């Protein structure tokens, strides 16, 4: 592709989408500034489960940068891709922390969930499911995932205590860890109020400075350039599929990834010219789904939880980014973070707690909730979020959600539910049951 301005405009539809090369570059820089915290948060969270921080850093930057650039070049959409925090928490704190799978087995569980995810994407089934699932279900899932991510932030700060695999009560609101959350969250809110780009990264840096002063940064294992960075490549244990206990988390991760990315893609494009009002679908959906699905599949091979379309892509879109150039600029900047690896030793995981709480808040589809949520949507969304928080369980939350919508459709609307909705519910019931008996039986 010739890089002349005219051909760039024609290939990316820059003028047609009401943008310019300058706006696209600025949007890419803005998206990167808001996304950069993931290279700190993701390795820190996975390190809590015993993953090597340096190896996760390599996987995070490599896969995120590669597929963000692919999203821009092929799908021509302004979406950045990065590991999903909702999957991070589930893998690190539940699959490894509670179910006690090894790191290799945990990556194998991610591998099988993303394999199903990828196959449904290339077969076009994912698009059909997007067409058929109720809007309320998409947004209720986003609400639940937001609550789950925020809970992880409160857990890391010691504000919520755990007994085994479930929250058991409230911890200290005045501990140094809790103060680290307040400082980080406060810095993010101030940056957002004055419209300073990169607010999440600023919040993490400010919180990390407090941690250094208060002694919370002691004995942090740094990210180092060494052969250890490659230790997780192709380390996934595919044989974990033979363990019945793995079936439930495989299904859960699949559904989180599948429906979470659907909600994000729709949420990022609705009310912009990236959404085709005639077809009621985002532009270039097929290509975007392929890139998203393939990124998810490659992630466990590199040693990471699933990479997916990232919610903070909204920052670049708000700046005016409407084409793939935004994603390409962001992806190139992500590659440059390889040179910043040694700096991560100054960032303890608790310094990311404020960012996690804010991301959880951002995942709430506030405009849709305010303008379009019916009473049943409110009830189901709140119920799902409650289940996720009270039991630290996305399986129970999603079971409640699917059951609620099926009851609403069949008994109240007197309609036949979508076959995809029924199949998803039944799969989750079977997977949850197998996992329950495999764990306690």
Shape: globular
The rounded distance between the terminal residues' Cα atoms is: 59 Å
Helix content: 55-70%
The low-pLDDT segments are: none
Order of helices and strands: HHHHEHHHHEEHHHEEHEHHHHHHH
What is the mean predicted local confidence, pLDDT?
82
State which percent range the strand residues make up.
Answer: under 5%
Strand order of the largest sheet: 1-6
**Cα gyration radius (Å):** 21 Å
The beta-strand count equals 6
Q: What's the number of helices?
A: 19
Structural class: mainly alpha
Number of domains as seen in the coordinates = 1
The major sheet is characterized as: 2 strands, antiparallel
Notes on the protein architecture:
This protein has 441 residues and is mainly α. The chain has one domain (5-223, 242-440). Helix content is 65%, strand content 4%. The protein has helices at residues 5-12, 21-35, 38-47, 53-75, 85-96, 103-122, 125-132, 135-156, 176-193, 199-214, 247-269, 285-302, 313-319, 324-336, 353-362, 366-372, 375-391, 394-412, 419-440; strands spanning 81-83, 160-163, 166-170, 275-276, 281-282, 307-309. The strands form three sheets. It has a two-stranded antiparallel ribbon. A hairpin with a 2-residue loop joins β2 (160-163) and β3. α8 (135-156) packs antiparallel against α15 (353-362), α10 (199-214) packs antiparallel against α15 (353-362) and α17 (375-391) packs antiparallel against α18. The protein starts with a helix and ends with a helix.
């Amino acid at each position: 592709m010739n890089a002349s301005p005219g051909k760039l405009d024609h290939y990316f539809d820059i003028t047609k989408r009401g943008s310019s090369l300058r706006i696209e570059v600025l949007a890419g820089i803005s998206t990167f500034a808001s996304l950069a915290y993931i290279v700190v948060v993701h390795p820190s969270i996975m390190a809590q489960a015993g993953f090597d921080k340096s190896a996760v850093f390599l996987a995070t930057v490599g896969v995120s940068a590669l597929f963000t650039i692919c999203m821009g070049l092929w799908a021509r959409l302004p979406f950045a891709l990065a590991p999903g925090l909702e999957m991070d928490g589930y893998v690190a704190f539940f699959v490894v922390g509670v179910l006690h799978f090894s790191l290799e087995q945990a990556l194998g569980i991610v591998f099988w969930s993303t394999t199903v995810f990828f196959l449904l994407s290339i077969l076009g089934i994912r698009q059909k499911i997007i067409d058929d699932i109720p809007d309320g279900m998409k947004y209720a899932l986003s609400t639940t995932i937001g609550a789950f991510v925020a809970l992880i932030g409160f857990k890391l700060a010691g504000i919520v205590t755990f007994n085994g695999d479930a929250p058991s009560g409230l911890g200290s609101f005045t501990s140094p860890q809790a103060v680290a959350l307040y400082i980080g969250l406060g810095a993010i809110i101030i940056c957002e109020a004055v419209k300073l780009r990169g607010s999440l990264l600023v919040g993490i840096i400010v919180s990390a400075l407090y941690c250094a002063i208060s002694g919370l940064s002691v004995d942090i294992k740094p990210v180092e350039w060494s052969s250890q960075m490659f230790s997780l490549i192709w380390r996934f244990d595919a044989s974990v599929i033979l363990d019945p206990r793995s079936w439930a988390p495989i299904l859960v991760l699949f559904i989180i990834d599948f429906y979470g990315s659907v909600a994000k893609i729709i949420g990022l494009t609705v009310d912009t010219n990236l959404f085709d009002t005639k077809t009621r679908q985002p532009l270039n959906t097929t290509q975007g789904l392929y890139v998203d699905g393939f990124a998810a599949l490659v992630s466990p091979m590199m040693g990471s939880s699933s990479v997916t379309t990232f919610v903070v892509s909204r920052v670049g879109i708000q700046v005016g980014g409407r084409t793939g150039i935004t994603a390409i600029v962001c992806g190139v900047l992500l590659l440059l973070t390889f040179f910043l690896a040694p700096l991560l030793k100054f960032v303890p995981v608790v310094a990311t707690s404020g960012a996690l709480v804010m991301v959880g808040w951002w995942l709430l589809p506030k405009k849709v909730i305010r303008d379009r949520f019916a009473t049943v949507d409110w009830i189901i969304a709140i119920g799902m979020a409650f289940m996720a928080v009270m039991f630290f369980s996305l399986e129970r939350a999603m079971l409640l959600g699917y059951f609620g919508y099926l009851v609403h459709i069949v008994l109240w609307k007197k309609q036949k539910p979508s076959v995809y909705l029924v199949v998803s519910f039944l799969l989750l019931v079977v997977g949850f049951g197998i996992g329950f008996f495999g764990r306690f039986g």
